[in-house]
Write a structure and sequence with these properties.
single chain, 92 residues, two-stranded antiparallel sheet, flat
Length: 92
């Protein structure tokens, strides 16, 4: 397991102490053992489910409306021109 911890730490660019490597190695071992136990469960008669609870869209309808407070909105910008934000050019 020590090799796995070193490899994972290197991939994640983590500088771990030897004590941390031992601790995380034990924790990873417990997690992987539990995952192996779950893989042994017989799930043949269990229907697949994407969510544990019914999902529904709770957003409101998107309705276009005229903007009546443009002066307040553009007042937040550093530079305004013709009631629009003026931004510096980024490309030639």
């Amino acid at each position: 397991m020590q090799l796995d911890i070193n490899h994972i730490a290197k991939l994640a660019r983590l500088g771990l102490t030897e004590d941390e490597k031992v601790l995380y190695g034990r924790q990873l071992s417990v997690i992987l053992d539990y995952a192996a136990r779950l893989q042994k469960l017989d799930t043949n008669n269990i229907p697949p489910a994407s969510h544990a609870i019914p999902m529904k869209n709770v957003w409101r309808e998107d309705v276009a409306a005229p903007c009546t407070n443009t002066d307040e909105i553009v007042a937040n910008g550093p530079t305004v021109e013709n009631n629009m934000f003026r931004v510096p050019k980024i490309m030639e």
